[in-house]
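Worked problem 6 (solution included).
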Amino acid sequence: MRLLTTVAALSCYLTQRRSEKNCAVLDDVVLDEMTSWERTAVGLVPTMGGLHAGHLSLIQRARQENSTVIVSIFVNPLQFSPNEDFNRYPRTLELDMQLCEQAGVDVIFAPTPEAMGVPQKSIQEAKVTQVIPPSAMITGLCGGFRQGHFQGVATIVTKLFNLVQPDRAYFGQKDGQQLAIIKRLVADLNFPIEIVACPTVREASGLALSSRNQYLTATQKQQAAVLYRGLQKAEAIFKSGVRNRSQLIAAVQQEVAMVSNVLVEYIELVEPTTLMSLVKVQEEGMLAIAARMGSTRLIDNILLSDRLPIIAIDGPAGAGKSTVARQVANKLGLVYLDTGSMYRAVTWLVLQNDIPLDDECAIAELASSCEIKLTPSQNLQSPVQVWINGSDVTQEIRTIEVTSKVSAIAAQGAVRKALVKQQQSWGKRGGLVAEGRDIGTHVFPDAEVKIFLTASVSERARRRQQDFKKQNQPEVSLEQLERDIAERDWKDSTRKVSPLQKAADAMEIQTDGLSISEVTDKIVSYCQQLFSQTSSL
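Solution. The predicted structure is:
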């Protein structure tokens, strides 16, 4: 790990790193499953230091998804007003460096204000070019109590994006207003960056982790947990059918009022993308709170959504994910997210438009602008009907011509980015069963149900040998199949980008000795039990 403190050093490092990546293939990457974009991807985790488990969760996610991870540590003077805690904000660089090294960070970028080209003044006093988000997004919630704060955040984040030019940047959901503003900034200024939102990490009491928590005494920390309890009370009545703003806010107020030394600044219900105030939750709402405990300002929020559940099934090769996922979707009446058919649909469209397979720019344009639709079918052999740009291509995508070309299309980074974006867009509505190597850890990290399907190497070898026999393929010994599977497992689990791993909140199912139907029934029973108090299933 390297510590860089100047823009010149950062620029030099990134130039060298990208040159190295373009000239060499990482030893731990399997070429037929990883695009060149993934092998060279840079992930940025912007922080102000004082790192805690919440920051580390962002870093861990970035480490899973990128070949290079950069953590910026910069206490940004532009986002503090003159009466705020800029001078006493936690600065713990030595400890932060230790935590970053343990987490596998490649570079810490810790510049001074001078190196970043900003004075140690508030945004109102600084004579620098400013990035000003839409006024409707910065005047409400925290913006009403911290004048200039989000202009200061947007200005420095823009500078970091320009300096690092990351493929992905990671932010926590705890700062919901900041997250929405940065997503809008990236969209409006056409930054080619994926903003990855990561769940709020909490102390055992429920208090959202924050660098400012260290200002609190042990007693104050316990008392401050009332903020989350209030949000939970509102979530409970939301699940019972309450959608009205006044009732949801009243539930939070009633709980928070039980701790007299918590001074509430606001409790608001807003649309989480636009931050516009909501009278009633139609699809999704963000219930946000800000309060002071002594001189310490704390914020928290919770998302309220009516979306149908997402069931994400991960696991090693040969564990039976695809077959099980199809049957689970069929039994629960959900859509099986057939990602393979999505790549086939794009391939079909490329062939229909006579685009050469090596014209990646034209294919990128096609993939990013096409509309794919999947609808469930009662036919388990073909459980999903596939539509692209209004055409039903369910049968056409199974032709020999498409089959022979799909691997070349799927290997292109722009295609994967476009299709993952569509998958995540569908995820907002829910009602999906999806399977893959990183479905629960990368594509749908907020899935309501996560299953890690696995089996012993010997069991998977036996299943594969049976499949070969059914397909009249040449016989391969069990010993050879076991060696191949063990090697594949090692490569999948140790690769630097998107490694195979069980999500922390996933239920593991060991399938040795179980039939497909038994595994399916186990998952369906688990899902129905989990959602027994809702009408989702």
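Discussion: Residues 10 and 137 are 32 Å apart (CA to CA).
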